Amino acid sequence: MNFSFVLFYRMSAIILVSAAGVISSQNPVHSVLFLVVVFRHGAGVLILIGAEFLSLIFIVVYVGAIAVLFLFVVIIRNIKLGDYFLNKIYQYLPIGAFVGIIFFLELLIALYLQGVPLNMTQLKRNTVLRGNWFSIFDGLTNIELFGQLIYTYYFIYFLVAGLILLVAIIGAIVLTIQPKNPETGINVVPFAQQVYQQTSRSVGKSVFISSRL
Amino acid sequence: MNFLYFEYLPILLFIFISFLLGIVIFGLSFLIADQAPDVEKVSAYECGFDPFDDARNTFDVRFYLVAILFIVFDREATFIFPWALTVGELSAGGFWTIIDFLVERTVGFLYIWKVGSLEWD
User: Could you tell me the pTM of the whole model?
Assistant: First the structure.
């Protein structure tokens, strides 16, 4: 019973429990925090298999940027606790099962088929399943390994990732741009008063439950 | 595996101890403090009268844009890290792919700048 064995099973268990917590939590902020736990333990598993650059990049990019983005979405959407009733879950069960099956098939494809082979330096097919990472472990650090492969042999994936990020920039700009009047410099659609919302306020609807102990 | 990544063991110890410290601080304050929640104590305060509306303001979407741009340019930095270490061993093609990538990033950045999304007023 190796120490790294114990660590791996502990991290996997926490990943599974936290992933269940993401989808079943009542409070959306709790869901995002469970997701942060999932990412951190995923990074821990990556250190155990020897990909330490990837694990730290997981923490920097996933937790530091993507989980923050999820939190922004939760804030912008202004989701309150009472919006989520238990009997509404079953409406989404067929679609959820469909999407879940598709992701599971993607997982099987990633394990059993190695994608489009670009050249002869492709890893052997059984390596991922059997987990004999040490037979190909070369004595390089993980960063050097990435550096030697991404920019030369697998440069297509790298450039495609760059293009996807460019499309993401343009998409974000298109969604959030606020056109300005060229003479006055004020927005074309300024922040206006919403008279109906202001006059239809009532005390009963303004107090709500934000968490349950 | 334990022998190869022995240097990461202090980090694991650090994580355990900080986790324990967090549990101790929260747990002690939960167990020892006197808690008698009351409707008046727990409800939101708005100068003594019943609150008009929800305390959350409309959220300016420019913050979200900042978060997205942070992701994109952070990915640029993380792609430059391995290249910076191994550029001596790469062929000429390895050098020019990263230049192409940086040109794409620059095009994106110029677009953002000219369109005016970096303006905050």
Answer: 0.75
